[in-house]
Specification:
- The chain is an alpha+beta fold.
- The protein has a single domain (2-162), classed as Alpha-D-Glucose-1,6-Bisphosphate, Chain A, domain 4 (2-Layer Sandwich), CATH 3.30.530.
- 21% of the residues lie in helices and 40% in strands.
- It contains three helices and eight strands, in the order ββαββββββαα.
- The protein has helices at 26-34, 137-145, 147-162; strands at 2-8, 13-22, 52-57, 64-69, 74-84, 88-93, 107-117, 120-128.
- The chain has an eight-stranded antiparallel beta sheet with strand order 1-2-8-7-6-5-4-3, with helices on one face.
- β1 and β2 form a beta hairpin.
- The chain is globular, with a radius of gyration of 15 Å.
- 30% of the residues are buried.
- Residues 3-10 have low confidence and may be disordered.
Length: 163
């Protein structure tokens, strides 16, 4: 898995990026990614009051991205901005520095699924707009760029997609 972080693109967006390859056709890679309950580390990476039992991405533009905890309570993570199977998915991420949903905070996660062969897909992942965290932007970038964040979470996706 390769990675890059910091200022990206032509603007001043602070982002964390990952490029990974899965041994799966493009459509399967997309479907597995959207089915986050099948691979997301629900026991450790959740913002609800109780551990999560599901992480749901509603498969349409404007759909919600949310967790359902063991008590049945729903906690919003963000929204679906682009839903273009099997090529691209863009989600908002509205999780504050203190790990609560903030409807006024908007960063974006873009995931592109690029076929390298009939059975192999390169997945380009970017979490951008981290400047929305203001004075904590670099601190947040360092958190998301760390081994316990996108690196380990995306490795779980790779394992599921490769299965």
């Amino acid at each position: 898995m390769s990675s890059s972080s910091g200022i990206t693109g032509s603007g001043e967006s602070i982002a964390v990026a990952r490029s990974i390859v899965v041994e799966a056709p493009q459509a399967r890679a997309f479907d597995v990614f959207v089915d986050m309950t099948s691979w997301w580390p629900l026991a450790t990476h959740t913002i609800g009051a109780a551990p999560a039992r599901a992480s749901i991405v509603e498969p349409r533009v404007g759909g919600r991205w949310y967790d359902i905890d063991r008590n049945g309570d729903e906690t919003t993570i963000g929204r679906v901005v682009a839903y273009e199977p099997p090529h691209r998915l863009v989600l908002t991420w509205g999780i504050s520095h203190d790990w609560k949903y903030d409807p006024n905070l908007r960063t974006e996660i873009e995931v592109q699924f690029i076929p390298e062969s009939a059975t192999r897909t390169r997945v380009e992942f970017v979490h951008r707009g981290l400047e929305a965290y203001g004075e904590r932007a670099e601190e947040e970038r360092a958190i998301y760029d760390g081994d316990g964040a996108w690196t380990s979470v995306l490795q779980l996706f790779v394992e599921k997609a490769n299965a």
